[in-house]
Specification:
Structural class: mainly beta
Shape: globular
Strand order of the largest sheet: 6-3-4-5-8-7
Largest sheet: 6 strands, mixed
Number of domains: 1
């Protein structure tokens, strides 16, 4: 189910709102936001990710962990069971925010303790 897009100008009233239905089916099923921090002293890079499941309206939180380059994308895809085929567009949109503060990356990767799945390595937030 897709939500309609509503364009509102400053002079519009509720009666004149123009609703534009998107064409085709939504291709993106997940939106992953990753924050990274580089430890200058030891030369290591760490990340944490939050993945919004658009269809189920839940968020998966991947805690602060070591990894550089595309490691965060690999971890997220593996946990969600996503295997992209060559030439196909992915069902997940990746957003990476680099050079954050350590505390910011740690906070981004925190979830409720009772929602942690240790065998999968992430939190399930509703």
């Amino acid at each position: 189910m897709t939500k309609p897009i509503v364009n509102i100008d400053k002079d519009d009233s509720l009666v004149s709102i123009n609703i534009i239905e998107p064409k085709g089916e939504r291709k993106i099923k997940y939106i992953s936001t990753t924050k990274t921090w580089h430890d200058e002293v030891n030369g290591n890079t760490y990340f944490s990710s939050r993945v919004e499941d658009v269809e189920r309206d839940v968020t998966y939180v991947f805690p602060f962990q070591y990894g550089y380059g595309d490691q965060s994308e690999y971890v997220v895809k593996k946990a969600l069971g996503i295997k992209d085929k060559i030439g196909e567009k992915s069902i997940i949109k990746f957003i990476k925010i680099e050079n954050c503060l350590e505390e910011e990356v740690e906070q981004h990767g925190q979830g409720n303790e009772e929602n942690y799945f240790s065998e999968l390595g992430y939190y399930y937030q509703d």
